[in-house]
Amino acid sequence: MPDFAQKLVLWQRRHGRHGLPWQGTRDPYRIWLSEIMLQQTQVAAVIPYYQRFLERFPDVGALAGASEDEVLRLWSGLGYYARGRNLLRAAREVAQAGRFPDTYEQIHALPGVGPSTAAAIAAFAFGRRAAILDGNVKRVLARRFGIEGEKAQWALAQKLLPARAIGTYTQALMDLGATVCTRTRPACERCPVAGECVARREDRIDELPAARKRNPLPLKHATWLVLLHQGSVLLERRPSTGIWGGLWAFPELISGLAEVFCRKVLGGEVKQALRLPEIEHGFTHFKLRVRPIRCTVRKILPRAEAPGRIWLDLDDAIRAAVPAPVKKLLLELRGRN
Asked: 3-201 has which CATH code?
């Protein structure tokens, strides 16, 4: 076993994380579910979602038989909703095949499974030798070896793979980056490879890995129409592609006055329209600033029952598959009623 891998394996067994709910199992379904949820999401945020998913969908067959709306409802608030849609697509592929794929290549072919995710699943569930290179691992390799660039790091990650204890080694890389070799204020005194660390020796810890130049995020605007009628609210299903694909949200005002748009397009005669405080929500590539308009509806017209729209009691709307800022506003509305 290479010296680097050996030190990480010993460190993991003594000091790594061992109590996470998806650890201590070889069940590929549970490992796959956790790895998809952990993509771009902190462990603490994932745990309650993971536990709720397992309660409702204890195996891949149960998940494969679910509707997209039910999956997205349980996913609501976790973000990056394409993961939830891909999770359902992959579950149906696995259920149709009759077994979970057990090689890196087959796992990588599942919807929503990238190279590092496939490698982690292959290592944890089947003991396959495959390299991971997520953000935490890139930081560990950049500092320990002074190597940057994705191509060079992939080659290094492959070279460092041990012949045995691959699951322990893979978890060690993840844990070292997440808990010791952190982006800011790394705990070098607890690092098992600090003695050979290039960044530490050359006093370049803050330089490695080099920070990517980030352009200011563009700001987009939207106006939400919050139609209320006798304790119910109108929600509209968003297109399957784009932000919040497939989720339920408030209709957006495309043009003109809110009252006219509500009557002609949404089928609600408005008695009173009131502007609510603006909401700002951040995405990976842009910021969204929303101006909600609360519209008290006097009468619902037949066109309000168009496909893709639904009137729900506030309590039911809160439990529906809605994005986090929509749920927050719904909770505020329930508190005012």
From this structure: 1.10.340.30
